[in-house]
Amino acid sequence: MEDTLTQCRAAKSAGLPPLVFTLAFTSGFSIMAVELLGGRILAPYFGSSIYVWGSIITVFMVALSLGYLIGGRLSLHEPGLGRYGSFYLLSALALLPIVLAGDGMMEQVFIALADPRYGSLVAASALFLLPTVILGMIAPYSVRLLVRHQQHSGQVAGFLYFVSTLGSALGTLATSFYLVLWFEVNAIIWTLIALLACCGLLAISLRKWL
Amino acid sequence: MRLAVYLLLTLLSLAAQGRTVHREKSLYQDISVVEADGRRCLVFAAIRGDQNQTCQYLDSDKLVFPYVRMTFAGLLLNPEPQQILMVGLGGGTVPALLHRLYPKASLDVVEIDPAVVKVAKAYFGFKEAANMQVTVSDARVFVKRAGLKQAHYDLILLDAFNGDYIPEHLMTREFLEEVKALLSPAGVLVANTFSSSKLYHHESATYRAVFGPFLNFRQPKVTLSRVIIASQGSLPDPDLLQRRAEALAPRLAPYGIPLADYPALLGTDPDWDQDARVLTDQYAPANLLQRQ
Fold first, then answer.
1. What does the pLDDT read at residue A11?
2. Which of A65, A147, B50, B242 is most buried per CB count within 10 Å?
3. What is the arithmetic mean of pLDDT over A37-66?
4. How far apart are CA A64 and CA A169, in angstroms?
């Protein structure tokens, strides 16, 4: 872990790795917080049967796999903090429909599809696919920002997944144990939107210095 | 002689432990059917051992559990329901009895777990009929769809809570509003719920927010459960309740339901923290509150 940081620092400006790791942690946290709240959001229309969770997990896995693909692809051309920050801003924007239009959309799906399995799959796709694709783009792109030498690429990637997955674990735990007890679902989503937007603005404003 | 004593001891210990007639894992729970002390019980989450969901006496029509008997107090608000909705099948004891009492009424039963339907039919003598059908569905989905079809019920029984896990989307203000919209003008909602933990306050506040005053039925010395009886229209006065109870009591006596005793136990006075936060689709940590 120390090695990774040292290697990154030596390679580039000392502030970059801590920033990227903090941001990757936040994206990991947000992904799982939203996934967990997904069950809450769908339950009034599609219940909380096992297939509702099946739909949610499927959509998140598909979205992340697409995000990894796209993020890796985008990292080929002039990678930089500016674009990295724009991923965060976009993910914040993509979460907005959940609070602003979620109920109206789910009602339409509920009326159109009688089978709650496909209803929940369609609703989960409509609400969660896009923001999760964007959040998934962050991981490979972070690796690209940090790696300077091929021999360290595995180590950097390993440490990055360590940090972002730890963020996911904390996002899951905090949301399911405490946040839902204290706050409304929408309040939690708004907070995540604000958090991701701040991450984006931070990365963009620091792009000249790091 | 020794053999006889041995046999007797074995029989006694078997009777005390109970005999597991059937066991299966479903998508939602571990289901066991256990026989002990002359009754057969449906048990969820077998490890705890004390989570009897439904019990039936093997040689009697009487209802085993006080809270199941208390459910029938709902009839005091509508003694002749024609359309009935039951959420949560269990062993099927309540729908079967309602079908017996009101053979002409149509009865919709909603149960989330297909394995429970199978077990109720195989081990608890539950039978569907032309006017009593079970739908395997999440209750929230069923209720919302029934609302779209503008269905109405004179009696809705909500028995989907088993202590271990509470379906949180069936405790919110929005859900209760959907249920209320399904009640006919003389319709009654009866919910079997909890009386301990912090959840009691939140749940009471939520029912009150949707229905206004409701009849709260608790027998703390007898059972930890409480039964909420809420109505679409205004609540009948105590005299009317008592008169209806006297009239209906003989029909329910064969099942061990002391209906005439019930009106005196029904109250509308809030005995909960009235500042408790109302549960909504946005705020529904029922399982967390249940542990506090």
1. 47
2. A147
3. 96
4. 16
Task: Please tell me if residue A173 touches chain B, with a CB cutoff of 8 Å.
Answer: no
A53–B contact, CB cutoff 8 A: no
- Chosen for mutation from A37, A49, A52 (greatest number of chain B CBs closer than 10 Å) is A49
Report the residue of chain A nearest B281, measured CA to CA: A44
DSSP tag of B278: P
ipTM of the modeled complex: 0.85
Q: CA-to-CA distance for A24 and A142, rounded, in angstroms?
A: 7
Above pLDDT 90, what percent of chain B? 65
Q: How far apart are CA A143 and CA B158, in angstroms?
A: 53
Contacts of B280 in chain A (CB under 8 A): 184
Q: In whole angstroms, what is the distance from residue B282 CA to residue A188 CA?
A: 10
**How far apart, in whole angstroms, are the C-alpha atoms of residue A97 and residue A147?**
35
Query: Between A and B, how many CB-CB pairs are < 8 A?
Result: 59
Contact status of A161 with chain B (Cβ, < 8 Å)? no
**Cα B91 to the center of its chain, rounded Å:** 11
User: Which residues from chain A sit within 8 angstroms of residue B137, using beta carbons?
Assistant: 47, 116
Q: Is A112 on the interface with B (CB under 8 A)?
A: no
Report yes or no: A172 at the B interface, CB cutoff 8 Å: no
**pTM for this model (two decimals):** 0.88
Q: How does residue B94 score in pLDDT terms, banded at 50, 70 and 90?
A: very high
- C-alpha separations of A148 from A5, A136, A164 in Å: 12, 22, 20
- What distance in Å separates the CA atoms of residue A111 and residue B210, rounded to the nearest whole number? 25
Residue B14 CA to residue A171 CA, distance in Å, equals 49
Per-residue pLDDT at A6: 57
Q: Are the C-beta atoms of residues A156 and A147 closer than 8 Å to each other?
A: yes
For chain B, list the domains and their CATH numbers. Answer: 19-57 (no CATH), 66-280 (3.40.50.150)
CB spacing of B140 vs A47 below 8 angstroms:
yes
CA distance B65 to B74: 16
Nearest Cα residue in chain B from A49: B138
Angle, CA B278 vertex, CA B276 and CA B282 arms, to 5°: 130
Query: Phi and psi for B184 in degrees, rounded to 5?
Result: -70, 170
- Residues on chain B bordering chain A, Cβ-to-Cβ distance under 8 angstroms: 27-28, 112, 137-141, 144-145, 148, 167-169, 172, 174-175, 280-285, 288-289
Active site residues of B: 159
Write the Ramachandran bin of B202: left for phi over 0, alpha for psi from -120 to 50, otherwise beta: alpha
Number of neighbouring beta carbons within 10 Å of residue A177? 11
Determine phi and psi for A116, rounding to 5 degrees: -65, -15
Give A85-108 pLDDT, tens digit per residue: 999 999 999 999 999 999 999 999
Surface-to-core class of residue B147, CB atoms within 10 Å of its CB (0-12 exposed, 13-18 middle, 19+ buried) = middle
Residue of B nearest to A183 (CA): B283
